[in-house]
Design goal:
Length: 100
Amino acid sequence: MSCVQESSAVAFVERTWGDEVQFVGIPGIDDPDTIREWIESNSVVSIPHVLDLTGSIWSNYGVISQPSIVFISESGAVERHVGSLGPLELESKVEALVAL
């Protein structure tokens, strides 16, 4: 699954769970204008994004490639998934996070 397909899954799940779960996009290192254009053209405008121009956020969470998703519970527990998640698997993981 490509980042474009993954972003569609994230946007779908965010529309369902956005009132209970905070979604934040952290794009890879790239030109800010290119990142902005990508966000606007891939249905994730409603999700706040943080530019990680040095890669330090990715590094802190052990992210080495896209797509990757990091889940952080209210207690601070971290679960990292490297690779794609479809909408059903992503929603299942978000449901589990909310249930904690």
